[in-house]
């Protein structure tokens, strides 16, 4: 048995990016892929020359290196696409993110007014406790808006009532709510701004084309990408991974290496370890949950259905959660422009009722729902294909953090093992984040020091609309100092004192200069300061009056300054919440 | 190969934003107020100079009671600006100093 320098489990974006990095460093990796095609969850499946994406993958990254790499790989085959994705609700299309005029028009003035009333009510009298997602959203957007745009879709995605989703999950999922970040962003723009991208790149024939190019590059460099190789055991000696056993068809094979990088679901990795980890680690792995989904691809004998790349379906009447229109991503995704292929996406759990439905039942359901939504009669469906995707979304439930930490601590015992990618790290990594983890893992194997878990942390890896510009981070203490409240009393005293001293000094100055003191214009102050005269006694009286009025104005100034600052901060926070919500549905 | 330390993510520091009390930088406040005063006098004087008329700045000239050498002329505007700057700086710095002292005392 030969010992390879590195074995990578999984030929998704993370694994392939790691392989790419190894090749560039003159190391020949072996990549084991369970499936018959590369790309993992961002692969492109094909059926009778119709190509379809598993969930819709936009290529957009804040990371210049990743962008460059994608461009290098695909060149002219990397198409720029203007994004259009809307919410389908009550047989109407709502702009996403919501635009007031469009929402008002679609919902009608009465419903819009009721939403506004509901919003005001929740802002004025919020629920005192936010224990679940429902309460969390209602407190921020009002009950009617929640019922219209949040409840159904969120429940479709997660399969549980919103009341059972913890509020802290919502706060965590809706990133960018750090007030300091929001304030910093409002002041200086750029780096931390989170918003939807309006344009993205997409490979001519779907994301799989990208991953195939990576595969070709690795193979050309002497690496191996072995398809249909499902890892069955990961053998270790408690400090190192020694061997990986895998099935290739009916053959059971094994491979050993110096280093191992895994992008398979971390919970699965734990269960495949031999000897088995302690019971509590296995229990943690058992409790890490993933949401699965099914794509029912319908080929329709119609040139166009809707102009969007994808639709979020919020209507509770249908089970479908999202609809992909593949030819709107790239016209090359369909072989015949007179036909349309759509992907009806059903979120489910592995082995639940939907998951277990037969393909023909799924197709029938999807066709009927499509008809019900008014896109096309079911009779126009001329072909179909079903893809089941397990482990599609790591579930951020109330225990996942603790469980993940337990597993990470345990896996840290193996000094030649790194986990990468979305499933490998049980984290909502996008393609670029996953690739980044793979590249960094490869670099770590070569002696560099990188923290893979720092990738996709709030500050560095966000999508944004504007061109990326590097803005130095604003130190927290500077922001805190800038927005600290003004001490009203202190400012009132200071302002009053200075005013008093000014008038006092002016009076004394006139007196000291002599001349026609009584006709000095300063005497006009007596119109306001009763008892004032241009005398020494008058100077003290003027001081008293000026101090009093200065104190009042100073206090009022400080009060208003604090009030406006609070309003400003509140607005920034609200804006940040809204901005974050724009990405909310995208992240599923 | 490197293993990284695992930490729970820190709690968001929003509360910090509201916990602090603003302290003024007396020098900066003084400088700002000085510039405002100086510019104010400079602009006000030259505005009247440009407007012209039989009696230029009958009220503004009263400043000369305090700012020796000041006149409602272009040269006077420069002198006034210098006085205004000095006065503003002193007032601003004094205000900042008193404010900080009171804040320190109250804390």
Compact summary:
The complex is a heterodimer of chains A (588) and B (107). By secondary structure, chain A is an alpha/beta fold.
Q: Helix proportion of residues of chain A, in percent? A: 40-55%
Elements of chain B, N to C (H/E): HHH
Mean pLDDT of chain A: 86
CATH architecture of the largest domain in chain A: 3-Layer(bba) Sandwich
How much is the radius of gyration of chain A in Å?
A: 32 Å
Largest interface: A-B, 49 and 31 residues
- Please provide the count of β strands of chain B: 0
Name the beta content range of chain B. under 5%
CATH superfamily of the largest domain in chain A: FAD/NAD(P)-binding domain
Task: Work out the helicity level of chain B.
Answer: 55-70%
**Structural class by sheet pairing and helices of chain A:** alpha/beta
Spans of chain B with pLDDT under 50 lasting ≥5 residues? 1-12
Distance between the termini of chain A: 43 Å
Shape of chain A: elongated
Look at the helices and sheets of chain B and give the structural class: mainly alpha
Work out the count of structural domains of chain B.
1
The low-confidence runs of chain A, each spanning 5 or more residues with pLDDT under 50, are 190-196, 459-472
What percentage of amino acids of chain A are in beta strands? 15-25%
Number of domain units of chain A: 4
- The Rg value of chain B, from CA coordinates, equals 24 Å
What characterizes the major β-sheet of chain A?
8 strands, mixed
Can you walk through the features of this model?
The complex is a heterodimer of chains A (588) and B (107). Chain A contains 20 helices and 19 strands. Chain A has 588 residues and is α/β, with parallel strands linked by helices. Chain A folds into four domains: 3-73 and 197-288 and 396-454, FAD/NAD(P)-binding domain, CATH 3.50.50; 85-196, no CATH class; 291-391, Polyamine Oxidase, Chain A, domain 2 (Alpha-Beta Complex), CATH 3.90.660; 488-574, no CATH class. In chain A, the strands form four sheets. In chain A, strands 1, 2, 9, 10, 11, 12, 13 and 19 form an eight-stranded mixed β-sheet that branches. Chain A has a seven-stranded mixed β-sheet with strand order 7-6-15-16-17-14-18. Chain A is elongated and about 115 Å long. Residues 190-196 and 459-472 of chain A have low confidence and may be disordered. Chain B is an all-alpha fold and 107 residues long. Chain B has helices at residues 14-19, 26-51, 74-106. In chain B, helix 2 runs antiparallel to helix 3 (74-106). At the A-B interface, helix 8, helix 15, helix 18 and helix 19 of A face helix 1 and helix 3 of B.
């Amino acid at each position: 048995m030969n010992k390879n320098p590195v074995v990578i489990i999984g030929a998704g974006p993370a694994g392939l990016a790691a392989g790419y990095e190894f090749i560039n460093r003159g190391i020949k990796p072996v990549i084991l892929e369970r499936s018959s095609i590369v790309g993992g969850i961002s692969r492109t499946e094909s059926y009778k020359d119709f190509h379809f994406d598993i969930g819709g993958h936009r290529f957009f990254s804040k990371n210049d290196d990743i962008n460059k790499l994608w461009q290098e790989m695909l060149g002219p085959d990397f198409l720029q696409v203007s994004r259009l994705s809307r919410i389908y609700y009550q047989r109407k299309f709502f702009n996403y993110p919501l635009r007031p005029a469009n929402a008002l028009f679609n919902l009608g003035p009465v419903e819009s007014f009721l939403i506004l009333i509901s919003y005001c009510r929740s802002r004025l009298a919020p629920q005192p406790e936010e224990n679940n997602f429902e309460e969390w959203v209602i407190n921020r957007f009002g009950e009617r808006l929640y019922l219209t745009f949040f409840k159904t879709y969120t429940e479709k995605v997660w399969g549980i009532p919103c009341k059972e989703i913890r509020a802290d999950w919502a706060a965590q999922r809706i990133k960018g709510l750090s007030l300091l970040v929001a304030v910093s962003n409002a002041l200086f723009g750029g780096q931390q701004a989170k918003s939807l991208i309006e344009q993205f790149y997409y490979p001519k024939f779907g994301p799989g084309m990208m991953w195939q190019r990576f595969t070709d590059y690795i193979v050309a460099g002497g690496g191996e990408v072995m398809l249909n190789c499902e890892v069955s055991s990961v053998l270790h000696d408690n400090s190192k991974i020694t061997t990986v056993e895998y099935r290739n068809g009916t053959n059971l094979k094994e491979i050993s290496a110096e280093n191992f990088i895994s992008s398979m679901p971390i919970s699965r990795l734990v269960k495949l370890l031999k000897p088995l980890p302690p019971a509590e680690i296995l229990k943690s792995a058992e409790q890490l949950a993933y949401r699965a989904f099914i794509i029912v691809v319908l080929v329709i004998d119609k040139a166009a259905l809707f102009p969007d790349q994808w639709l979020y379906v919020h209507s509770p009447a249908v089970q479908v959660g999202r609809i992909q229109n593949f030819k709107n991503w790239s016209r090359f995704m369909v072989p015949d422009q007179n036909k349309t292929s759509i992907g009806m996406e059903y979120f489910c759990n592995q082995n639940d009722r939907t998951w277990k439905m037969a393909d023909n039942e799924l197709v029938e359901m999807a066709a009927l729902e499509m008809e019900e939504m008014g896109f096309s009669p079911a009779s126009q469906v001329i072909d179909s294909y079903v893809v089941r995707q397990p482990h599609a979304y790591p579930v951020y439930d109330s225990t996942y953090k603790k469980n993940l930490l337990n597993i990470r601590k345990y896996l840290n015992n193996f000094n030649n093992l790194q986990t990468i990618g979305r499933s490998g790290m049980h984290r909502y990594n996008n393609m670029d984040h996953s690739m980044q983890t793979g590249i960094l893992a490869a670099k770590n194997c070569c002696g560099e020091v990188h923290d893979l878990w720092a990738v996709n942390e709030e500050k560095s890896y966000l999508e944004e609309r504007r061109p990326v510009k590097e803005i130095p981070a604003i130190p927290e203490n500077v922001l805190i100092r800038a927005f600290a409240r003004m001490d009203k009393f202190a400012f009132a005293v200071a302002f009053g004192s200075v005013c008093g001293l000014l008038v006092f000094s002016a009076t004394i100055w006139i007196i000291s200069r002599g001349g026609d003191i009584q006709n000095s214009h300063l005497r006009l102050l007596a119109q306001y300061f009763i008892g004032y005269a241009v005398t020494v006694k008058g100077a003290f009286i003027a001081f008293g009056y000026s101090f009093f009025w200065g104190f009042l104005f100073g206090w009022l100034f400080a009060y208003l300054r604090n009030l406006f600052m609070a309003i400003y901060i509140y607005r920034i926070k609200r804006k940040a919440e809204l901005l974050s919500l724009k990405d909310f549905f995208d992240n599923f | 190969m490197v293993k990284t330390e695992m930490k729970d993510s820190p709690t968001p520091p929003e509360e910090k934003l509201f916990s602090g009390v603003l302290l003024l930088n007396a020098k900066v406040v003084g400088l700002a107020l000085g510039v405002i005063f100086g510019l104010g006098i400079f602009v006000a004087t030259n505005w009247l100079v440009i407007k012209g008329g039989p009696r230029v700045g009958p009220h503004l000239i009263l400043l000369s009671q305090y700012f020796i050498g000041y006149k409602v002329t272009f040269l006077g505007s420069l002198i006034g600006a210098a006085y205004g700057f000095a006065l503003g700086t002193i007032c601003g710095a004094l205000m900042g100093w008193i404010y900080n002292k009171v804040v320190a005392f109250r804390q």
